[in-house]
């Protein structure tokens, strides 16, 4: 299995670590014995490498929910301009908002971007009117509805 890897991301990882991660990116439930066989090392080596990467915070093996299958039909990115004296308070309130999946501090004329998941347009409208518009310190928003996801990639190995 020859893979191009971006070694600049984690310079502390060696080629074996990258090859292990590649298998786990493709199938996080792949047995360590199978990875060991594929890579020509012992199962213990794989187990120890994975445990070390998890301890170092480099690797997390998590389940990812498919939003469409879970009934989430609407995804929106919302750019948020904030009164600079109230940024911390706005962020704190957004962090506690159920609909906000992602909260990002950005540069430019909008200080924040949030990604919101809702079941439909009605629920998105409710969120905008009854929650977001009531957050003290937000001066302007720009709502961008995601029409179709063309690429979604969580992998870092090419």
UniProtKB/TrEMBL annotation:
The keyword DNA repair does not apply. Gene3D superfamilies: 3.30.70.920, Winged helix-like DNA-binding domain superfamily/Winged helix DNA-binding domain. InterPro entries: AsnC-type_HTH_dom (IPR000485), Dimeric_a/b-barrel (IPR011008), HTH-Siroheme_Decarb (IPR050684), Tscrpt_reg_AsnC-like (IPR019888), Tscrpt_reg_AsnC/Lrp_C (IPR019887), Tscrpt_reg_HTH_AsnC-type_CS (IPR019885), WH-like_DNA-bd_sf (IPR036388), WH_DNA-bd_sf (IPR036390). Signal peptide: none annotated. Keywords: DNA-binding, Transcription, Transcription regulation. Pfam families: AsnC_trans_reg, HTH_AsnC-type. Residues 13-73 form the HTH asnC-type domain. This is Lrp/AsnC family transcriptional regulator.
């Amino acid at each position: 299995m020859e893979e191009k890897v971006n070694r600049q991301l984690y310079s502390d990882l060696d080629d074996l670590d990258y090859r292990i991660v590649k298998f786990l990116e493709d199938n996080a439930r792949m047995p360590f014995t199978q990875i060991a066989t594929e890579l020509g090392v012992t199962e213990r080596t794989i187990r120890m490498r994975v445990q070390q990467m998890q301890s170092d915070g480099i690797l997390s093996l998590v389940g990812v929910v498919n939003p469409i299958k879970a009934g989430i039909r609407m995804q929106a990115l919302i750019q948020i301009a904030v009164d600079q004296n109230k940024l911390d308070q706005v962020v704190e309130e957004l962090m506690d908002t159920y609909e906000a999946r992602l909260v990002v501090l950005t540069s430019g004329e909008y200080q924040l971007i949030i990604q919101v998941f809702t079941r439909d347009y009605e629920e998105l409208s409710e969120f905008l009117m009854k929650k977001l518009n009531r957050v003290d310190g937000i001066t302007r928003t720009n709502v961008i509805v995601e029409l179709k996801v063309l690429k979604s990639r969580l992998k870092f190995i090419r």
